[in-house]
Design goal:
Helix content is 34%, strand content 33%. It is an alpha+beta fold. The protein has a seven-stranded antiparallel beta sheet. Strand 6 and strand 7 form a beta hairpin. It starts with a helix and ends in a 10-residue tail after the last strand.
C-alpha cells in the first residue's frame, strides 16, 4: 500500500514538473518573439538578469523585453554593467543591440531563441 502511494506521488511530481517546463518554454518563446520584432530606442529604467538572461524596460515603452545578450566587440563587458541607465537601440529582427553609454557605443548580439539550446 505504501509503495503505491509513493509511486502516485512521484508520478504526480513528474507530471507537474513537465507541465511547468512546457509552460516556461512557451513563455520564453513568446517573450523572445516580442523582443525580436520590437523597435527599441530608449533609456533603460529597469533591468534584472539571471544566468545570462536579462529582462529590461525602456523609459518610452511599458513592456519588459528579455534576451541573452553577449558582447560582440566589448571584450566581454557585461550587459548589466553597460545598459542600466543608458540608451538601447535595436531595429526589428536585428541580431544586434546597441548600447550608448557616455557617448561610447557597445554592441551585443543574441542568438535566435531556436538556436539558444544548440552549441
Amino acid at each position: 500500500m505504501r509503495n503505491n502511494s509513493i509511486k502516485q506521488w512521484l508520478s504526480l511530481l513528474v507530471i507537474a514538473t513537465m507541465s511547468i517546463a512546457c509552460f516556461g518554454y512557451e513563455k520564453a518563446v513568446r517573450e523572445f518573439k516580442e523582443f525580436n520584432s520590437a523597435s527599441l530606442d530608449g533609456k533603460v529604467i529597469f533591468m534584472e538578469g539571471t544566468n545570462g538572461y536579462f529582462q529590461f524596460q525602456l523609459d518610452n515603452d511599458p513592456k519588459k523585453y528579455g534576451c541573452r545578450p553577449v558582447s560582440a566587440d566589448n571584450f566581454g563587458i557585461s550587459f548589466r554593467n553597460v545598459a542600466m541607465g543608458n540608451n538601447i537601440k535595436k531595429i526589428p529582427y536585428a541580431d544586434t543591440l546597441i548600447v550608448i553609454k557616455k557617448g561610447r557605443t557597445y554592441k551585443y548580439v543574441f542568438k535566435k531563441f531556436e538556436e539558444q539550446g544548440k552549441k
